[in-house]
Amino acid sequence: MSLAQDVPLSPLRISTTDDPAVVAEQRADDYSNHVVPLTARVGRWQLTMSYWSLLSAMVWLFYGALAASLYGTVDALIAIGVSVVSYSLINAVFTRWGLRSGLNSTLLSRRMFGVLGASLTALLIAANTTYYAVFESSTLAVAFHHYTPGWDIRIWYAIVVVVMLPLMLGGVQTWMARLNGVLLPLYVIGIIAAVVAAAVRFPESSDWLSFGGVVPAEARALPGWLLGAILYMGIYLCMPTTVDFARFAKVEDDGFHRNITFGWLFYIWLFAANGAAGIFLVRAAIPNEPTAETGVVQAILASLGVAGLILIVVSQARINSLNYYQASANWERLITNLTGIRLGRILLVVATSLVVFLLMLTDVFSYLQNALAWQGVFLVSWVGIALTHYALVPEDRTAGPEFRALRLPRVTWGLGAWVLASAVGIYLVEAPGVPAVLAGAAQLVALVVSAALYAVVVKLRPVAAPATADPRGEVADPAAAWADCHRCEKAYVVLEMDREPAAGGSPVCDACATASLVPGRS
Asked: Rounded distance, CA 251 to CA 135, Å?
């Protein structure tokens, strides 16, 4: 059933202010399945402090130490520099796209992959951030277990999850920024103190720059700095995460966020400062041990003792506030897209905590890297496709692409390009007999293949929205008007409203429209 433009329709019930019921509900859910209206955007420092919870993850220190362990300190530092530049440039695009559109990464993906296909974006982010929550929580448990070797480490797993849970319930609009703003100076002071203490306690650390890596030059299929940069491509999770946070930015703060919150200053700190600190601490404190996931924890404890334990607690409280936020929000999007059921983000924070605890009971470090490598290939391909869409479809740059569920197919040819490019990357990583050059550059190959395949899709199979009655054309400014949804009886910004053919053209919000597509829930 379709609605022609000339069919008389009942007028929209319009208001010029937010629906108080929606505001109250979304204070907890942070518009997980809706456009973020301009009235819900937050101040620059509130958004910065929320997003900068990323700065204190132990994984950033570990990546620097791992790159140096494999390819040498100098090559690792060059790789970090390349990553700072590339991440800053790429995220300048995603910052502006998220800010202008108010869309999260799943909604932003719909034009590329379809309404159902975009659910894979939510699944990948949810799974990745859940794994990282397991990683970070496990490192904290290991740190405590270091001082209580007689205890079963599973006791510390439970304690860490239960004690951290209340701190994980905040969102961008509530107290996530305050938590991280208070803890940020403690983390900075702690890292500086750890480096200074390591330099004093381990005088031989002065030769940390000369370490050449355990992989000899003749065994490297590519230059060490390039292999290190490809290693850092495994953290392309930062790109969709940028979109998920940038949607809360005020339009007038565009330049600030592209340079500070999500830009070069952030990545100098995230990769350069943390990476160099991780390299130095591991080379100074445990130079004769292979770099493992818990190596940074051991190095910090060896350098600072109990004070190092406090530093690790601070870092985990900060980073896990983001891990749990992203995991719960994206699990919510996935569940809503697939079932039409809305569980609410706070309930899913609790559920995520339970999943994290259960995964911690397994030998998480034995499979974590493989799981993240596979997911990293999918995320690299997602970035390649999103950047290609931005470059080749200029009409989607300013206000974002069409995302409304009733105007897009369930899946698109773009989804096929994504899956195929990811399959190529995974094959290069896992298959025996693959040339060393291709195996070492698997993620880079996936990026190139995804961009090339999607460029073909855009030219041969473009996704066009149907020419049906559009509420956006019924108001002067769809970003500054709210209309009632006939299903949930709440008012959402007209940008996301549509008219539902199966209900005689009644106006419907996008979340309800998405739910209506689930079999048995029309």
From this structure: 35
Report residue 291: phi and psi, to 5°. Answer: -70, 115
Q: What φ, ψ does residue 275 adopt, rounded to 5°?
A: -60, -45
pLDDT at position 37 over 70: yes
CA separation, residue 5 to residues 395, 409, 468, 498, 504 (Å): 22, 20, 6, 13, 13
* Spatial distance between the Cα atoms of 193 and 189, rounded to a whole number of angstroms: 6
Extract the tokens encoding 109.
Answer: 């993906």
User: Measured between alpha carbons, how far is 175 from 142 in angstroms, rounded to an integer?
Assistant: 28
Residue 208 has pLDDT above 50, yes or no: yes
Residues in the chain: 522
Which one-letter DSSP state was computed for residue 492?
A: E
User: pLDDT for 81-118, tens place per residue?
Assistant: 999 999 999 999 999 999 999 999 999 999 999 999 99
Q: Summarize pLDDT for 414-429 with one digit per residue, the tens.
A: 999 999 999 999 999 8
Q: How far apart are CA 113 and CA 410, in angstroms?
A: 8
334 and 126 Cβ atoms separated by less than 8 Å: yes
Give CA–CA dist 6/422, Å, rounded.
Answer: 44
The answer to whether the CB of 79 falls within 8 A of the CB of 67 is yes
Spatial strand order of the sheet with 14-15 comes to 14-15, 482-484, 491-493
Burial of 318 (0-12, 13-18, 19+ CB in 10 A): buried
Q: What is the per-residue pLDDT across 351-397, written as a single tens digit (0 to 9) for each?
A: 888 988 888 888 766 666 677 678 889 999 999 999 999 999 999 99
CA proximity to 132, closest of 330, 344, 326, 362: 326
224-232 vs 442-460: helix crossing angle, rounded to 10 = 60
